[in-house]
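Sample A.
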Amino acid sequence: MQVDQTTTVLIADDHPLFRSAMRHALDGIIDGDIYEAEDLQQATDMLHENQAIELVFLDLTMPGNNGLTGLLHLRNQFPNTLVVIVSAQDDVSLIKKAVALGSCGYIPKSTPLPEIAKAVEAILNGETWLPSDVSLASESDNANENGFLQRMS
């Protein structure tokens, strides 16, 4: 699973064990530098110092980040940098809000490493990656589609 381009990544999470697991998941997928930050300020500083960082994995609950405020901060300061949320929270409405605010993916921390690898590959190929049980379609969209399908049959 090798992506053809060199990609520089920042893993922003306050848990060293998760940063290590994410590094492991990225091994063989990206061919670029991997940086680590343990809080939002350190992540922001690294992004200012290293313009080559293209992809950030952002924990929602690390120091300096309060929910989706870190995502908004990074998207406003670094609009050309992809941001993927990684979180122990897997609430569907939170996931949809994150994508609506500019996240290019949402990876629950409970996701197995092989699935994380698939998620990263999809994101680097320009896709928005979400857990398989999450759909961006609203319930009213689904209801309208179901009603349309019933009328057509």
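Sample B.
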Amino acid sequence: MRKGRYFTKQSLQKGNKILKFEQPGEFYSRIARKSMEKNDLPEAMSFYRIALNRDPHNIDYRISLANIFTEMGQYDSSNRILIRIAREHSDHGSGCYFGIGCNFLGLQEFDNAQESFRRYLFLEPDGEYAEEAEELLVMIHEDIESITYEDEE
């Protein structure tokens, strides 16, 4: 049986070289997506963080990380990322407001959720999530009215 080759301090001093295994952010992003498909959110989060370290300006990695936080019920962490993206990148901001609104719903902060959905609809009246945002606004309004009605009784 052949023994494996290990790098020791002595072998490194003799001039043997170790090749670095550095991959771009996309490599780690692919692994993160596969982890998401397996519903391994902590692992996906770890790989998206590595991807962001490799490519810190990649908005898609940031949005994916925010989505993982949302899936894990960490709405405040997700909102911190989404709010920063919305402020810094107007071309991605409108979609972020929809995500922010959903996170506020998860936090039961209905006024903030309404504000976020309204902002989304103002920026994207015919956007991908416009119909859902309108339905959520109606639902929030009905919930607030029913709470107010119950308090009056």
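B remarks: The helical segments are 9-13, 25-37, 41-54, 59-71, 75-88, 90-106, 110-123, 130-152. The CA atoms of residues 32 and 47 lie 5 Å apart.
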